[in-house]
Each structure stands twice: as structure tokens, then as C-alpha cells.
Amino acid sequence: MAVLGRSWDGVGGIFEDRPRPTPDVIVFVLVAALMALGSVMVYSSTFVRLDEETGDPTSAMRRQMIFAGVALVAYVAASMIDYRLYLRFPVLIYSLMMIALIVVLFAPPQKGATRWIPVGAFQFQPSEFAKVALIVALASLLTRGAGRRLSWRRLGTALLMAAVPGFLIFLQPDLGTMLVVGFITVGMLFAAGSSFRQMLVLGASGVVGVIAVFQLDVLRSYQIARLAGFLDQASDLQGVNWNLYQSQIAIGSGQLVGRGLFQGTQTRLSFIPSQTTDFIFTAVGEQFGFIGGSAVILAYAILIWRVLIVAAAAPNAFGAIIAVGMAALLSFHVFVNIGMTVGLVPVTGLPLPFMSAGGSAMIAMASGLGIVNSVWRSRSPVSDRPEARDL
Amino acid sequence: MSDRKRADGREQVTSSWRVGVLALLFTGAFAILFFRLWFVQLAAGPEWLEEADQNIVSSEPIVAPRGDIVDRNGLVLATSVPGLVIEIDRSLLPVEVEDDVLQRLAAILGLSPVEVREAVERTPSGEVAALPEFEIDADTAYLIMEQRATLPGVTVRALPVRGYARGSLMGHVLGHMGLPSPGDLERLPITDTNTPIGKLGVEREYEEFLRGTAGKHVYRINPEGAILEEIGTVPPVPGATVRLTLEVEAQAEVERILIEAIALSNALKETQDEDETDPDRTPPPTERATAVVMEVNTGAILAMASYPTFEPQLFVGGIDVASFEELSERQAFNNLAIQGVKPPASTFKAITYVTAMEENIFPEGVSTPEETIECSSQLAHQFEDDSPHLWRNWTFPESDGPQNLHDALRRSCNIYFWEVALSIWRAFRDTDREGMVQDWARAVGVGRPTQIDLPFEHYGILGDRQLFEEWRERQPWRVRAEGWLGGDLMNLVVGQGPIVTTPLQMAVAYASMLNGGTVYQPRVADAIETADGERIRTLEPRVLRSVDISPETVASLRRDLTSVVRSGTARRAFEDLGGLVEVVGGKTGTAQSFTDQEGVFHDSTAWFVGVAPIDAPRWVVAVMVDEGGSGGAVAAPAARAIFQYLLGAEVTPLVAGEDTER
User: How far is A124 from chain B (nearest CA, A)?
Assistant: First the structure.
């Protein structure tokens, strides 16, 4: 096996010789830019309706900007905190997460699900934070004994650690987030050195699990309907496929350069339910076209690439596995979210990172990236070797 | 690699190839996203854009006001008036309260709930049902508006509605409106099943001009279909005005005279009843009559009346079943001038007359029109086939003395014309000249469509050997096995037997013969004009064909038709014309009474066809009183009154003319 630092010679080599205590500016700029674009997109899809209903066309955007501000503060704060601190309280982190996930089940249901805990004027969504918390907790488990072959026992413990919150999230129900948890876990196990045979067993049990889900009839009827609608996208355009259909009309009508900011009829006239949250990408697609849409995809690709670099350059297994977890989290969200708006994957309620309206996901993901940034900063010889600080 | 310590002493964390695999995986996933986006936005983009445009726009039609129908002088006969119409938007009418709402609406309208439901259910649920049959007045509209809260989906809209200014006047020519049938939707370039179209008469014939083009309001809508703003309005183009060749005044006079003729006929029947010995042959009351006045040198119809008639207004907003059935029972929707086919009887003799003159064919032993034969009371002839051999001259039970062709027309002597038929039979039997009378009849317009600009014209029947052969093939019950016989030709030359025509066909035939051989297409429309009176199209007189008739024959026919009204079968009927009788000519006809297969007795049908002024004919008048009795007694006096009107004389009351040709 290649030593990580050496294998990324071009990257690692440079960094190793050059003290870099500063945060990753590219990540910060990308995150801030996505947040800004998201706020404008939220405005474009709400101002007509809000102006009519309340006379205050900017309220949704303002709310979104507040979240973005808080998220950026969380990002910076998490960057400043030495991530190794979390290694001391993995049980505390995991327990807080579990408590939140249990408490939310007793919250008043909204839209047929219990995903939110009302806190004043805001809605706290534990599952969004749970994903980041689980990444940290799993990383701390997998770090112990890292470098050695991942034992079956540790693998089982990790799976159990993920399965319990996964089941609680399933109860909300939030199938999308449950799948994220699964994907993150598998990704982290892979990064932590699971063997080919272990991956094979995981894959096989995943297939068995999917079959069991269908056989045991645990899916809600709307989930089955969405799946069926996805498989026959031309059917029931006024019903289950309304969202997908209107979403594709919006994105498709944007064509190459888009219909122009505030010019998209689908967005302006609120043809797409949940456009500010799960379907925010349709606002980009309609108004800025293929150029805008692919620019957003490219921005996420760079972001994830930067996180993977951190994984590769991390000074220890804990930091590297956290970074892999965050990369998996972002990739899954971006792929599934944009994929569902263009009819590539079935409709699931996953927010587009830093763009979808809603505070919990934004703050949680920004915190996660902040932790990754903390890993990035710590890998510098400067932070590792106090004597070099004089340089 | 077993070494877990890096060169710098830090612990080995994870293998770089694993991160590389993840990077590849994510790159692959993003590439898929990228290409899918490319497909949706660039490859399929234009189609999605079209859908986006359709998504946000809804349009509501604006009904175009229908064009007016005016008479020759611009007097309005039919127009569009603003009306109030009920509309029911079924998408706003919840199914569970539909029954209640329709019941309440029916109560307001004074209709049965069943009627309302039937009307509403013509429109699929979820759409707007316009109910033009529920035209309402302002008071009812207010009542509905007041109760709007309990009548969800029900609105009152202002729509142009057809209005007929002159009651039943010219009803058959104007026709009427109605909702399009499936057949209409195929025939016409229309899709709107809620807007009435012309179903009969000029309303139907000139639908494309009268209809105009609907406009529309275009709205921007939200996903729920609620209107956000009006994007634009395409104003409707009002229908064009159709100017008729008919005149309101002439038409009114002709219609009045027709009713008078029916009264006269019925009065005569009452006096006859007392003499009648055979109760089975008691004539039924006269109910139907028609008269048409046409310009001889243009084909323009000046008046066309048919009785009984109907009011086109009854159909606006839907005619009620009882009225419709009652009018149907009386055959009120039949325009007898173009649909009433009857044997033309002796009026046809003018055509036989022209044939004799032009073909130089006269009774046996006669070689000029001036030579006479005895107009005896009967004619005995032994055909080689089974045709009857004894022909009774029913007009003249006693011999009427020696007559030449001129006398025979004036006196309507059947014997003379039968002898002409026998001459043809003898000379040309089974040759292509055998049908010379029919050929002449066809040339001047009998047995073929006149091509008048009104729908549903009947063509009549003109029998000959060929037609009988066709019948024997396809409808054998109509003809006897022997086929065409000499007796059939004898019947035909005096307008009986295998011949039926419409009054308009006879009018066209007389006009063609007396104007020197030009056959015009009869027409009721003179011009198409815009709503502002600008002429779009003038319907010029149209010559269908020219027939070669010698001026001598035309002059002779004119002379002899004059003598009919001066001293012939119509003498008494035309007495009231005074000196003007000099300028009128015509021919009476009385189609024989008969008892049909069901034992019902049908009285004679009275005809008169004539022209004036005789030396330079301008008008042809055809009168037909269905089962009205004798042509001389009933039809000729009616024609006389019409001529009085046309020639500017005082129209005097109808008095019975001679009872001829019975």
C-alpha cells in the first residue's frame, strides 16, 4: 500500500515543505458563492408570491441569508476548533445525536412526517446534524487501530452505530437521509481499509436489504408511488409526477443560456412545489440555463475535490476519514438532488448543499466542512511543529 | 505495505488508492449529471420551452357577432343582438352539490331540472358549459347574480344572440340556427360545440361569411388555473352581412296572397262538398302552398314564400320540443318552392309546346302549328304493348272543337299533346330521339338541380326509358315489368305520370324558354358586405347554360301564354288585372287527384306559372297550392294578385277562377 502523503506527491510534497496555517480559501469562496446564489434563487422563486401575499417580497431571501451567515460563522468556528478534540467525546457526540433523533419523533408532525423540532421561529432538523455527528463518531471508532486491517468486529460495530440512527431517521420517515447515512457509512468503511471481501459482504447485504424492504412492505404508499412514477415518467403528470414534470419543464426551458434572472415563468409563477428547498436547482436551470447549471455542478465538483485532497493529505486517520465522510455526504446530496430534478433518480427530499432554503442542513454541512478545514490546517507542519511557528 | 509509519514519523492513515477510487466514483457520478443536464436543456430544451409557454397561458374565446341578413334594399331581417347567456364552469361546481345547484338554477329559469342537466351534460365535467338555449332577460340575470353564493360555477355572460326582426317573414329563406351536430363539425372548419351555427336556409348556406372569426382574451395563469393578468386581446371579426335579392315588401305581399289563396281553396272545397256524392273522395282541407317570384334575366329571387311557415327566432336558444313537433307535423320546415315536388300538370305543356315547335313534330297528319285536329273527349289508341288504349280527355267531357297547337295550349287540350307524344313514339320509339321532350325539359331546367343557393333542394323526377331501366334494376317496386311504354310518354307530355318538379324548377324552365334560352342559376343572395356596408363580393347573375330556341318559337309561346290569361284557362282569374292582362302570360296546371295505397284521397294540386311583361319578360311567377284544387280556380288568381303587385297595380282580393282541367 502506498503511503498517502507520498502517493499525492505533487500535492503533499509541496504542502509538506510549505507551512500553510491558513484555511482553504477556495472552499470558503465556493461555499459563500453557492450560498449567495442560493439566496438569489430563493428570492426569484418567492418574490412574486410573497409580494402578493404579504407585501414583503424579500422575507424568504432574508431568512436564507441569515442562515447563510450563521452557517459561515459555524464554518469558521469549526475551522478554529482542533478536530482532535472530538476524539475525546465520541460517546457524548453520539448520545446527543441519538437524543435529538428520539426527541424529534415526539415533535408535532408536519407534512406527514416528524422531522422538525420547533425552536422559536425556526425549525431544528436533527437528522441534518446527525449526519455530521455520525461522521465524527464513526471516524473516531474507525481511527482506533487504523492502519491495521479492519476487523469484522469493528466493521459490525460501525454498522450498528450507523444502523440505529438510520432506523430512527427511517421512522420519521426520511428515506433520503437514511440512504445518505448508509452511503456515508460504506464510504468511510472503505476509506478505513475494509477488505474486498468485507465490501462484497456489505454489497450483498445491501441487495438483500433492498429486497427485504420491498418484501416486508415497510415503504409508505407515497414512496412506492414516487418510485413507480420515476419508472414511468410520462405517467400521471397531474399527480405523482407533477413535480418531476414541472421541474423538467423549468430546467429544459432554460436551454443554453437560460431565460434570464427573474424571467423564468416556471420559477416566477411557482409551478414547482418545494422549489426553494429540494427543487432549488430548477431555478438555476430555468434562469441561467445549461451554462449556469453546469457551473453549479462544477462548483460542487471542485468543492468535493478539495475535501478529498484533505482526506489524502490528512495528518492522521481520524481527519482523513472525517474528510472522506464529508465528501461522501456532499456527493450524495448533490448527485441525488440534481439528479431528481432532471429525472435521473426518483424524487427524494434531500437538500442541495448550501443552496436549498433551510437552516439546519446549511449550518450542519458548513460545520462539517469547517471540521474538514480544521484537518486541513492541522496537516501543516506549522501547526504540528510548534518550533516552526517562528517562520 | 506493512510499514505503518511514514518517513516523517506521523502515523499512516489511509491508502491513497482508496481516496482515488472514491474520487473516480464521484467524478463518474458528476459526469452523468452533466450529460443528463445537457440532454434536458439542450437536446430536449425547445420542447420543454414550448411546454413552459403552454403552462402559463390560457385563453377564453370572444364570440364574434354574427353578420346581418338584409333584404335587397338593406332592410334588416336577421341581426346580432347583445344577449345574456348562462355559463356553468363545471370545474368550479363540486360534484356533490351539482344536483342541488342545477335544481336551484332550474327553479330560477322555470325549467325542469332534467332539461338543465341534459344541457349541462353535453359538456364534459371540468369544462365550461355555455348554455345558449338558456338565454335570459336582465331580471333573471340579476336573480342569478344575487344567489351566486348558492350557485357555484354559475355565471351570466353577455353574448351576441341572433335576432330576427320580422317574425316568420322569409322564414324558409333565412333558415334557422342551432348547435352543431357531429356532421356539422366534420363539414365546417369549427370545433366550438357551444356556438350555434346556421342549420337551414341562408343561415346555413352562407355560414362561412356570417360566422365571422372569434377573438380571444389571453391570460397568464398560475398552476391552479387562476387568472393572474390579461396578456392581450384578439378582437373578434364580426361576420359579414349577406344582402339578399329578395325584397321585404314583395315577400310580405306574396306571403299574404298565399294565405289568401289557401283560404280561397278551402272556401271552394266547402261549396263542393255539398255536391260530392262519394264521401271517400271528400277533399282534405288545403294547408300548404308556395309561390316564388324570380327575375327572368338574372335568376335573382324577389320573393319566395312557403306556407305553413315558422319563426326562425324559435330556434334561438333552442326550440322547445312541443313547438318543434307541432311544426314538423305540419311540414312547416319544408320550403315547398325548392322541396315540394309535384307533377307540374299542364304547366309542363309549355315545354311540350316548345318541343313540338322546335322539333317540328305535330299530331299525325299535321305538319304546321297552325293546322288543327279535333279536340275530342277521348283518344283511342292501340299500343302494341299493354298500355291503356283509351285516353279520356278529362278536361273536356264534350268535344272542344278543332284546335291547332296555339289553341291547344290556350285551352289546355290534352288530346293535341297526346297526339304529339304518339307522333314521337311512332317516329322515334327506341331511338335516342325518343326522349326529345325530356331532353328539352332537362335543357330548360326540369329534372335537375336548379343550383339555387339554398340547402336541401329537391331535384324531382323526369321519367324516361333510361330512368325506368335504372329503377327496374335497383328499385323494381317503382316500375312495372314492361319498363318504359308509350303511355308513359303520353302522361309525361301533359305533366302527369312519371314526372314531379319543384315550383322553382318550373319557374326556371319558363324563364329560360321566354328569355330566349338562357338558363340562370336562381339565387337568393345578392352580395356579401362587411359589417360597415363595404362590398366584399357581388354575386353576379350566373348563366348555367344556353339553350338554342328560335326567336319564332319564343314569340309564339309568349303570344299563346298571353291568350291563356286573356281568353284561355286563366281568363276569369286574370279579369281583375284589367288592361294589364295584355302584358301577362302564363299557364295553369292541375295535377290529378288520386287515392293513395293507404286509401287516403289526395286532391288535385293547383299550379300557375307565368311571366310579365310578356314582350320583354322581367319576372316569372310560379304558384303551387298543394292539394288546393284547380289551377285555374285557385293558383291563377293568386298569381294574378302577385302580378298586380309586381306591375304596380292595386292588389285586389282573390276570387275563384275557372275550374279547369279537372
Answer: 30
Put simply, the answer to whether A253 touches B34 (Cβ < 8 Å) is no
- Contact residues on chain A for B220, CB-CB shorter than 8 A: 269
Where in the sequence is the domain holding A347, given as residue range(s)?
4-386
Q: Is residue A364 part of a domain?
A: yes
| Residue whose C-alpha is closest to residue A231's, from A329, A121, A347, A144 | A347
Q: Which residues contact B48 (CB under 8 A, 6 or more apart)?
A: A248, A249, A251, A252, A253, B40
Which of A253, A331, A338 faces B45 most closely, judged by CB atoms? A253
Q: C-alpha grid cell for residue A310?
A: 484533505
Nearest to A342 among B6, B21, B36 (CB): B36
Is residue B376 left, alpha or beta, with left meaning phi > 0 and alpha meaning psi from -120 to 50? beta
Residue A104 lies in a domain: yes
B659: three-class secondary structure by DSSP = coil
pLDDT at B198: 94
When pLDDT is cut at 50, 70 and 90, the band that residue A146 belongs to is: low
Q: What is the pLDDT of residue B338?
A: 97
The grid coordinates of residue B294 equal: 324570380
Does the structure's ipTM exceed the value 0.95? no
Per-residue model confidence as pLDDT tens digits over B255-296: 999 999 999 999 998 887 555 556 667 788 999 999 999 999
User: What is the rounded average pLDDT of the residues B421-434?
Assistant: 93
Element (H, E) at B439: helix B436-444
Give the number of domains in chain A.
1
Q: What is the per-residue burial (b if ≥16 Cβ within 10 Å, else e) of B520-533? A: bbbbbbbbbbebee
Per-residue pLDDT of B556-573, as tens digits, reads 999 999 999 999 889 999
Across the interface, whether the CB atoms of B53 and A265 are under 8 A apart is answered yes
CA distance B36 to chain A (A): 7
Summarised one tens digit per residue, pLDDT across range B348-358 is 999 999 999 99
Domains and CATH numbers, chain B: 59-244 (3.90.1310.10), 345-545 (3.40.710.10)
The residue in chain A having the minimum alpha-carbon distance to the alpha carbon of residue B10 is: A315
Residues of chain A in contact with residue B10, where contact means CB-CB under 8 angstroms, are: 5, 315-316, 384
Select from A301, A317, A384 the Cβ nearest to the Cβ of B11.
Answer: A317
